[in-house]
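Milestone 3.1: sequence recovery, worked example.
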């Protein structure tokens, strides 16, 4: 193999290993949720903190939460991310990252108050 061809293959191979967040024009995707932590109880109008764990590494990175539905008895939101760009393969998943969603408490909650993330129920919070 001649030297120029070998240099070209090495350059292409090394550049394929680099990853970076994709441009904002890439459509967001729903990320896999590993765990959701809810408090046992919350006041009817106080802020409710929901901690969502998503994978750290892999082909996507967390970008934002998207509120889907909020009523007196239900909160539903999705966890969104964007694909990494500039990589043929995805980096390994190395753990989890905790992201926090805060519901401001309006409208006032009623019992039981159920929380859905990416369309799945993760339980209820008692309203005091």
């Amino acid at each position: 193999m001649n030297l120029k061809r070998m240099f070209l293959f090495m350059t292409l191979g090394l550049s394929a290993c680099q990853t970076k967040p994709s441009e904002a024009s890439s459509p967001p995707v729903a990320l896999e949720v590993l765990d959701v932590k809810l408090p046992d109880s919350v006041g009817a109008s106080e802020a409710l903190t929901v901690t969502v764990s998503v994978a750290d590494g892999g082909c996507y990175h967390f970008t934002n939460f998207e509120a889907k539905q909020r009523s007196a008895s239900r909160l539903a939101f999705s966890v969104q991310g964007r694909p990494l760009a500039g990589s043929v393969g995805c980096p390994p998943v190395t753990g989890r990252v905790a992201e926090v969603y805060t519901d401001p408490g309006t409208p006032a909650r009623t019992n039981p108050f159920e929380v859905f993330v990416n369309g799945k129920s993760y339980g209820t919070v008692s309203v005091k």
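The mean pLDDT is 84. The beta strands are 20-21, 29-30, 33-37, 41-42, 48-56, 60-70, 74-85, 95-103, 113-117, 120-127.
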